[in-house]
Structure formats: C-alpha cells, structure tokens
Amino acid sequence: MMRRYQVRFGHFDDARREYVIDRPDTPLPWINYLGSEAYFGLVSNTAGGYSFYRDARLRRLTRYRYNNAPFDLGGRYLYVRDDATGDYWTPSWQPTQRDLDEYECRHGLSYTTIASARGGIRAETLFFVPLGETLEVWRVRVTNERDTAADLSLFSSVEFCLWDAQDDATNFQRNFSTGQVEVADGVIYHKTEYRERRDHFAYFACSEPLAGFDTQRDTFLGAYRGWDRPAAVERGAAFDSVAHGWAPMGSHHVKLALEPGETREVVFVLGYAENPRAEKFDPPGSQTLNKRHVRPTIERWLRPETVAEGFAALGAHWERLLGGFQVATPDTDTDRMVNIWNAYQCMVTFNMSRSASFYESGIGRGMGFRDSNQDLVGFVHIIPERARERILDIAATQMDTGGAYHQYQPLTKRGNNDIGQGFNDDPLWLILGVAAYLKETGDTSILDEPVPFDNVPGSEVPLYEHLRRSLNYTRERLGPHGLPLIGRADWNDCLNLNCFSDTPGEPFQTTENATGGSAESVFIAGQFVLAAKELAGIADLRGLGDEAAEYRAAAEKMTGTVTEHGWDGGWFRRAYDFHGRPVGSGENDEGQIFIEPQGMCVLGGVGLDDGLAVRALDSVAERLATPHGIVLQQPAYSDYRIELGEISSYPPGYKENAGIFCHTNPWIMIAETMVGNGDRAFDYYRRINPSVREAISEVHRCEPYVYPQMIAGRDAPTHGEAKNSWLTGTAAWNFVAITQWILGIRPELTGLRIDPVLPAAWSGFRATRAYRGATYEITVQKPAGVTGRVTHLLVDGERVDGTLLPVAPAGAVVRVEAVVTGPAD
Description:
The protein has 21 helices and 44 strands. It is α+β, with helices and mostly antiparallel strands.
C-alpha cells in the first residue's frame, strides 16, 4: 500500500467537473488546456503558458521559455494596482508572488478560473476558447470588498512570439529587427511577418476605454527588470510604446473606480486571424493591416453577454461529449477518472499528440504516427467524425512501402524529414487505429477513401490498401529468428539495438539504413499477431474470406515463432540485438525482463492457450510491480551500453531505464483480465490512477487529475515522483483498460460486448454507453466476494446467451442486465 501523506494542494469538485487548487505553490505547475478545435492554449494554476493556432511551432502566438525558473514563468498575466498606495500584485500569484489573502484556481473542461483577494480587492479571471472561434477570452471581474471606494489600475500583458517558435528561440539577430505592432482603436495588432506574408496576424483587445497601452517589452518592464516588477505597473501609467523590432508584447492599462461592494467586468480577447484570400496580396511594400473582417468578431466577443453565452455553450458541449459514457461503480476514483478526467485527457492528447505541453516544446515534435493512432483508441467514441479525419491525415503520410514518418507537422500534414523513418512498429498502429474506429462506428466506407502516399498527388489508393501495406511492411522485414526487424526502435524509442561498436571504446556506429540491421523485436512480433487478427476481421467485413484466412495464418505462424524464439522460460524476451544476442532474458546480467512484450504478446493472444501468458504475468507481478506502478524493466542498467542505445543513457529508475512508464501499465491490466484476474488488474489500475495518488501529491508532484508519462521507478532516489504529464498514450490505454476490459464494455466489429472482469470485492456497477446511435443502459450484478464472468445477458427483459449485443437501431434505448456468477474466493 502507498504511504498516506497529509499535504494536499487542492481537491476534486466532481459536481462541477473541476479540480480546485487552493494554494498557488503546487510542487510543479498544474496546468490545463484551452480550446479543442484549431486554437489552443496552455494555462497553469498561476497563469503561465502560451497560445497557438493549429501548429505549436509554426503558428505560435505567445512566447514561453521552457526550462525557466520559476518553471512556468511567462503567460497570461494581469496586474492590479491600488493607485492610492502604489501597492500592486498579480491575482494569479505569479509573477509578483505577493502574498494573497485568498487564492483559488479551478481547472475545468477547456477552461480555467483563477480568483484571489488582497487588501479587500478581489479579482477573478475566466480563461476559455469559445467553440468555433480562433481566439481566447479573459473575463476579469474585479470587486471592491472594502468599506471605502477604491481607485485601481488593471494592466494586461502577453508577450508575442514571432510566429515560428523555433526561429523565435534561436534567430535573435534577425528577429530583434522584425517585430512590428500596430495599435488602432484600442486594439493591439501583432503583425510581424505581415510585411512578408500579408496573410495572418494576432490581436489583443480590451472591452474598456484605455488609459494607455504598451507594445514594447523593454519599455513596459523597464531596464534590468522582469515580469515581477514592470516599470509601467510600478509607476501606475503605461508608456504608450509601439514596438519596432526587439520584443513585441501587448498590454492594456484600464482605470477602475469602484464603490464599496461594486464589481466591474473587463473582457480581454487574444486572437488569431487570417486575411480573406482576396486581401492577401496588397500592393508591394504595404504594411497596413486588413483588419475590417476581424473587427466584428472582436466587438462581439468584448460584450459580456456574448462571453456568458459562449461559456455556457462550452459547458453544454462537454456535457454532450461526456454524456455518451458514464459509469457508477463502488470506487469513487474510478468514477471520477472515467466520467470526467480520463476522457478529457484523451481529448486533449488527441488534439496535441505529444507536441505541446510544459515538457514538450511544440517545436521538435509534431503529430506522431504511432502516437495519434494510439490516441484514437481512447477518443474515438467521443467525436468519431474527428477520429475519421485524423486517420486519413495519418495514412496520407505513409510511404508506398508501408513504412511511415514517425511524426508529421499538423499545419502542413507533411512528414518530418529530419525525424526520418525506421520505427518499425509505426505501420502496424494504423491497423489498430482503424480497427478501433470501425468497432466504434461501423463506418466501413472509410476503407474505400482514396488516400495518397507521402501526400503525393496521384498516388491515391483506398485506405484498405494502406492497411495491407502496413502489415506487409512487417512481413517483408524479418530477421534471423523470423521475428520482425526492430529498425531504429519499436514502441520504446530508446531501445536502439542497431547501434553497435565492434571494439570497446570505439565511436558509436549505426547500420547504413535505419530500417535495416539484424536486431529483432519480440514486442513487434506480438503487435503483429494482434494487428494481423484485426486486419483479418476487417477483411471479413469486406467479404475477403481468403485474405482473412491468410492474415490469420500469418498470425498463427508468428505466434509459433514467438513461442520458439521469444520465450525465455518464465517470460517473453524483449528482443535480439544487432549481434543476435537476446535482450530481456535471464541470460543478461541486467535488463532481464521487460514489461512491453509481456503485455503486447498477451494482447495478441500469444500464450493464452498454453499457460505462458499466466506465467509471464506472474513474473511481472513478482519482478516488476511496485506500489507506484509497474517498472519498465529489471534490473535497471547501471551503466551506458552502446549496443542498447539511449535506454541505458538514463540513470536507473528514470524514463526507459526501469522507470514506471505508465503507458505500458494498462497493457498488463488488459492482459490480466484476459486470463481472468480482475483483482490484480484493478490493483494495477489504482496504483497509477491520478485521483488515488492525490493523497501523495508532494511525492507524485504532477497534476492529480491527469496521467503522467512516467513515474520514477524503484531504483530512483525519487521513487514515486511523476514527470511529463498530460500528453501521453497512457490516457487512451488506461481508458481502454478500465472501460473495455475491467468493466468489460467493449465495442467490436459486429456489436457491443459486455464481458467485465471485476475485483472480487465489487457487487457490480451501472453504466450508460452510447454506441452507433443507440443508448445502452447497463447493469452488472455480482455477489461481493465472488469472481467469475458473465453467464448471460437480459436485454430488455429477454435472456440472451453469450456476451455480445447486436447493434441496435439508431435512437433505441436498450436496457441490459449482465449476471456474473462464479465460485466464492
């Protein structure tokens, strides 16, 4: 059991679907995401973060400095100044860090509010992105709680990024001469790049008449000053600076005279705009913004009534999205994650892939081929039409060989050439992503959609052909043992087995072709078995019986290969290195057992019929499980090993070197349900459940409402400490593990299966699940202390043998009672 600590930094408000932070000095910045369509923002509990349109690198609106101190310095800052005394502070605590009499941050679904009070003045700011808009709203309510009148100044501030975040962070000699800002009718327009592109710009507007403004950072802050003590705020008056080069920013100065008890509402709007096509080509040398088309939008969103309507619409939007899957179980932490936070994280991760967080800069990584396909499995039921669009985008980056770019830029949808190819698990994830979509929607028309290779016009073939080539990519790249070649890496990007040195101490070498080399992956073998079976089911849907049989035969053959060459006596081996030596074997001095093949091989069905799966999972429980989750491998690598690559570059217990890589834990949860072990599956689920870990926030450190990528393993001095929160495949896979396998409500190609594998202590649960236009109201009944599986279903009062529900007509409400019986423990 995890040790219980007393320090907490907030609490869940389940009724409002919010996490409430009641002290600003959280162990790490606890963040939220604004927006869910094209315009996005990150905001921490102290208002740190940044905004962008579609692409976090190429359309960055505001600047953020990573690895800063404090960690989240730079963001959406407001300053309140008491003009009578000169005292000033930031209601978000950062960056001034002045003492606050009260503080509260509420992170909700695509919105955040930060409220605080100091010296009898209360300020509450709501941040959100309205649906269908490319802008964000800051609604500020300032209340005078004193017995006397108050004369106040309110200053806003954002620091503009010069659009390309990579260039912004490196090319200072150019960028310090290109910044341009224009102020018109109280609106600040950031138009750097407008001179050369004349097609897009940012704007920052305020609903109140201005006492002044600033757009030059050095002027607003003053020489040798930081955001904690801006010169304009300290003196109580803006400088009306207009940026020409250097570092453009935006600040409005508003005067507020408040009577006792009076509240004033001020609205700020930060947005992105593109010129209409006909206006993009001004006369040469023109620097005048074409802003006629954005003025109506700005004026509309500066109105309090529009803001109120937009915020209500956002709430209704999330009510509708989450309402499609709700559960009531004996465990509060499960309900909280399934009904609210895990589903929400799946949406955010789907939008961002791994590109933009406080740990990912949004510069080096775009949308991941593997990542985005995995994210679909946890997201597809929420907005299937967006999942369909994403699948086609992903497939269009695939090569005609069946190989794939590891990542692509969301704005251009082109593969990142500098990332290259060679992650040989990537192509198979497309099959698994498409299978998840088909199981949820039944929309087989997507298989006939023409999709190009590498986005080359004229190369279009049906999506189904892309799936064929994905499978063939693996079949055509087998190594000496008949196992799939690993290439540069498989799911574990840091396991680089085609790195080698013929002589100890000699420089690092690689094979000439990153997709070649002789290193083999048992993980990809298990994934291939799973993907081949999924593709066989899809082939059956298309009436291609012979092809389906071929794929099943290929899966069976690979299963035999894994059993012969991938089994180590007590668990599945991980791989074979460049020299043909086993990795993840009792023959090794370190790294003897890895988590990934124990999960993926069992997911593919390897070992279920001959007892190997149970033995492998028992080995995981004995050798890899810790109170904070299941570590990636044991023993940890104590020194660097060139033949293994980056994995051994991490200190023991961190990241891929025996860290608790949360992404892989749900594979073991699912595997445990497949062998009927509900108690162990649910135990593993709770060990990394963020809601459960809220009680140890000063150890866990990351947000207690979303999954992190990694928790430090048992070999680390900081065992239990989390890193890299939010953007991780952990979100999707944990949602799948708990909803589809432990609770057992699982979409399949021909219907909805109800096959829970519950912990013995439970007496059942209830769920509402929307599926292909119908609503299923599900009740599972099980005597406490009993384990077992569903023996039969009652569907609208009629007994149905088996556990598969046929697809009901759209609009139908189907009442399902599942009866679980079994021997007492």
